[in-house]
Amino acid sequence: MSEAEDIRRVKEKHGTSIIAKKNVVGLGVGYKETKGVKTDRMALVVMVKEKVSAEQLEQRDVIPAQIEGVITDVIEVGEIVALQERTDRWRPAPGGVSIGHFKITAGTLGVLVRDEETDEILILSNNHVMANSNDATQGDPILQPGPHDGGTMAEDTIANLGRFVPIQFESEPPPSPCPFSKAAAGIGNFLARLVGSKHRLLPVVIQQANQVDGALAKPVGHDVVSSEILEIGAVTGEREAELGMEVKKSGRTTGLTTGTVQLLDASVQVGYGGGRTALFTNQILTTNMSKGGDSGSLLVDGEGNKAVGLLFAGSDEVTIHNPIGFVKDALRFRFG
Hints:
This protein is mostly beta strands. Helix content is 15%, strand content 38%. The strands form four sheets. It has an eight-stranded antiparallel beta sheet with strand order 7-6-10-11-12-9-8-21. It has a six-stranded antiparallel beta barrel with strand order 15-16-17-20-19-18. Strand 3 and strand 4 (70-76) form a beta hairpin.
């Protein structure tokens, strides 16, 4: 009998009892490692969630050095779970997966934050992801996965819309209700008539530029959401963007991607479909890190998982993010 066949025989005979031991998640045939270096000796390799010393285990849970003359090895592999698509239903749902207002297609669950006043846990994403680009009402259902990915109100309501920052869309400026501007325009028009001018003054509201496309939603329960971001982990704080900074994000469509900050204080015209555009100022521009459906992803630095911005727009060449400081100030939340 060959060495490999002997190991398989022992595995077949003792496999059930070995897997039943605490901390064990699997076993197989492989080469033994000694101090991190693979040797040429074959072994029955036992996979554990976490390596611990024999003193920390009860005797029945200790893996013997040999079983019927077959040497053993123990490797740490963590918890093994079934892999899911980001467009699947996740419970608890981490940052980086599909989410959306019940009337949109789908965007990305950014991250969990805490209300500045009440300390309650809230979901952060974009206005156009969770508030339907201003066309939503507080309390509206937020689905995970988003409607485009099969989410339904009956089965997949994960949260209800809280507050959001309204987006100021560009349009023909509306007449101004200000009495002072009306009076000034009236005087100007009176003088124009006196001199025979055919031009008149019309007081209008000067539309403001935007800085944040953001919204918060209250989960229906603490057990339906996770504080970590898929493939990134927990957010460790926040920092301002810097030119040349290496950054990353975890999004519904393109998953974990990395990029570099190319511009700060950027002013950009952003299209929202249906002929609507909005001017955003003081934005972060990075190399292309996204595609449609990644909106709402949290932008973090490449070193310490510190929040830098909130992804909301882009093209085939660049991605645009709201600076995280503006988002926090506008929506009144904190991390942690």
